[in-house]
Amino acid sequence: MIAAQELHTEFQFPQETDTQLSSDTDLEDPDVKNAKLGKGKGGRKGKKAPGEKGKGGGAKGTGLGGVNGHHQENGMESMTLFEVVKMGKSATQSIVDDWIESYKSDRDIALLDLINFFIQCSGCKGAVSAEMFRHMQNSEIIRKMTEEFDEDSGDYPLTMAGPLWKKFKSSFCEFIGVLVRQCQYSIIYDEYMMDTVISLLTGLSDSQVRAFRHTSTLAAMKLMTALVNVALNLSINMDNTQRQYEAERNKVMAKRANDRLELLLQKRKELQENQDEIENMMNAIFKGVFVHRYRDAIAEVRAICIEEIGVWMKMYSDAFLNDSYLKYVGWTMHDKQGEVRLRCLTALQGLYYNRELNTRLELFTSRFKDRIVSMALDKEYDVAVQAIKLLTLVLHSSDEVLTAEDCESVYHLVYSAHRPVAVAAGEFLYKKLFSHRGPEEEGMPRRGRQSLNGNLIKTTVFFFLESELHEHGAYLVDSLWECAGELLKDWESMISLLLDEPMPGEEALTDHQETALIEIMLCAIRQACECHPPVGRGTGKRVLTAKEKKTQLDDRTRITEIFAVALPLLLAKYSVDAEKVTNLLQLPQFFDLEIYTTGRLEKHLESLLRQIREVVEKHTETDVLEACSMTYHALCNEEFTIFNRVDIARSQLLDELVDKFNRLLEDFLLEGEEPDEDDAYQVLSTLKRITAFHNAHDLSKWDLFTSNYKLLNTGLQNGDMPEQIVIHAMQCTHYIILWHLAKVSEGSSTKGNMVTLRKQMRAFCLMCQRYLTSVNTTVKEQAFTILCDALMIFSHQIVSSGREQLEALIYTPDSPLQAELLNFILDHVFIDQDDDNNSTDGQQDDEASKIEALHKRRNLLAAYCKLIIYNVVEMNTGADIFKQYMRYYNDYGDIIKETMSKTRQIDKIQCAKTLILSLQQLFNEMLSDLGCNFDRSSSSFCGIKELARRFSLTFGLDQLKTREAIAMLHKDGIEFAFKEPSPQGEGNPPLNLVFLDILSEFSSKLLRQDKKTVHLYLERFMTFQMALQREDCWLPLISYRNSLQAGGDDDTMSVISGYSSRSSSIRTKKAKPASTGKRKLPEGEGCSTDAVWMNQEQNVQTPVMMPSPHLTSTVLRDPKKMRPDEKQQHQHRRGSGLMEDDEEPIVEDVMMSSEDRLEDLNEGMDFDTMDIDLPPSKNRRERSELKPDYFDPSSIMDDSVGIGLLLRVQ
Questions:
Q1: How many Cβ atoms from other residues are within 10 Å of residue 235's Cβ?
Q2: What's the sign of the alpha-carbon dihedral 998, 999, 1000, 1006?
Q3: For 1165, how many CA atoms within 13 A lie in the half-sphere containing its CB?
Q4: How many helices (H) does the chain have, and how many strands (E)?
């Protein structure tokens, strides 16, 4: 029983002479200043102690049946205050008015109702009776309620979920506020009601029962807020009365009214007494509740305190906005819980928003500014957002508070992937850099190069370049979009900065700055047209409102009208700059092409097409050519009238390119002539242009397959073809086949076209296979990538979705091709990064190249893993991939793990066989390197064992779903262990026996029944002499047998006794011959089949429909912490045979045997199908006031703590 601590027998308010509620004036440690309310000192004269509350009037024997003493508007009578407030059907004003009427008629009964209201709001099922109210002190009442507290569920009204209880919390807070407001003129000064309520709430807030402490703290803080409002009104009335008194006294004697002076003097005196009374109440709540609960173990309680003190400081700044109260907010900004830190920041925002209060915050700002700045990088995104908003308010109040370093720590957050953080940082950046206007800027034009926006755009460009994150322009634009949208949409000023000549004395933009400006301009146009954040921010496209859709259409129309004219000019100016041209050519995809016709802009379209043609002729960069191709694709839209004009221009360009390519290729492939570099360059540049256009346009009518195939074949025969020509020829041929497939899939082609496609596809795949043996790595990587894509496209998946007519196109790789693909992965992916680049010069470039190379290798591995997942290649080829899981975990761990997950979903048994095969391969490699007499403590063997443990974790906790797979894994492992006899002759362990030590890592995943089956299967390979061996070389067999016997009937039996009892029983059976030789299966029996061995012993099989399992705790007590008698009892339980063959199976313990493995438990979480439920606790009260609210390891080991985990098998 945890009882509340003794409360004061008398409740007396501290007396203060001034209007301040605390004498603390400095920002010091809270432990120095905190002091509880003293006993019986300084009380106001005539005040009645809470212990005397029952003596003012009798309860008249009234029980709890008529607890309210008033009728409800809805006709329901005799309802408690808690029930009325919870239902929320009556207005709070009417509930309070009814209670006040009841209080005026019999204040003891009404006050008893109010006390029970707070008790019931805490979730306590008990109630305070009239007898208890008359004769028991508050401490005794709280102790009694603690004893009657029903904590079966662990929930109470403030923590319950659902709309009803969410509304109840607001109704509860509203009730307290309305109660004080309605009683502020008389009842709160009767020295009875408020004394009793404050005393009760103070005692409850000190309880060790969380529900009492949480509810009473919320009530006390809301009560304090209501009293602060009353005190503020009293202060205003006192000021008004004082001014009236001074005005009347300053009149001449003839006009002065002495009776009015006396009335004003008496009124001021009454107001002063009331204010003193209110201050005493507030001091009692502050020092009795707040000072202790703002450090409570429960985060919700701490958050309540900080939220309310922020309200007090904002509402009554003259009394509360000083260092004595601000220090609590400053200290709490270091709280471990994000919710509490968030309340601190929101409280401060309300203060910094009012500029009149800035002078009072100077000391606080200087002391805690660094902490606020650091919170901009808080791990909780909500806290970081509010911290940045608070810094924006600080910046708005004064420019001198934040240093340049402080601002820079916020600036870079505009590139954050979390959009709310980035938007808040964008607002901060805008306030700092763009919102200040000097007097010389007042008369500047609104738009254009010399406009104010022109200067701000330059500032944006300068910031973008200084941030050195040039690839994240879209992120910067998105961050500034909400606060600087008008600036970013001033495309006229951007065009003017790019096209117009600078004015005399004006500094022109550099080439680097112009490139950055074009990128920002493109990002702003994309943001305006697409209306969603860039990739990496946000969860996807959201539904636009009608207003947003209209804005989007207007912006798109304006963009088209502006850039239809300006884009040809920009392309003409920057036609030789590849980076600028690439960005500019992306603009037409955001145009409203209808405006070219309606706006009579055809001549500008002709100019644009001429410029695009010139760009194609000038550039050979892939990015530029692909941008030109996509521009033609965007303009060639059959829905618009400009289609014919654009299509003619595109066809003329492609005709010239194809004719030029065929002519150059014919000369290039002439036999007997050595091609020079100029010819190779001409072929390559033309092939690049054709390949880039073939990506987005169908060029089938030009029949490019023959020329490209001839080019690739010549490269194989001669071996001197430039690698770039081969790479682009492969890519172009791949596009040709894909466009041909698209036509065939549409059903618009003939049967002959399908036959042609099948021949071309197979010939091309054979060509790529031959290029896998090329000496050039880049060519091999291109051939591998295209080959994987082709195998995926033309796999058995091609006939899905009703495309059975494409069955003739299915292409299945043969064994040599699968072997070549696997060898490529092993040779080019699973390599050390240092092998690629060992240079020490240019460290930054070297790191960038390493990252790029790793990205390329990850793509190659992912391409091959897709073939495994979609069953294009045999699943067992994945063994060579899975065995690299540990060694290359940092580089490819996520890809390999996902591959294992997908393959398990396809075929659990085959996946398990692949996993054990990978371990067997590693074991054989180790034997070839170290020999058969290796040390089991060697790093190689420990690495294989660790890999097996990781594989075991990936099977998750649901043993039923993985039952057959795990059993098959053990079967293959046992067969491998006994496969090879000892090279030292009979009597020595088999060559691979040590593999059983690796296999034991999977024993914990076996069901109890299956452990017996696997054990019997193991004994079929053993001889009687094997069971008697005790040398170190036989330890793997002993440990593996023990792992299979753990938790069974013979847990504590020795190996020899277990085998002896079994062999003796065999000898007693005369009907069956007992063999004394090796217990291997005859060759004629199906010992290697997948299903027979599992059905040999029917008596140990678990039926498909299993009964409900017994429930056992997953928390095992540490044997070291057990008493000796407990150890003996524990061992007795383990060896007493708790479960027979016909008993219901129990759920095995899922806790890991070693604490150092706990961090790896997440390895199996992807496949976890267990539900872990916390049962109702019998005693969830905290054992001390400030005990953290989490599971203490010591409490788990304590028998007195009834906490367990209930595992429910799905």
A1: 17
A2: positive
A3: 7
A4: 48, 2
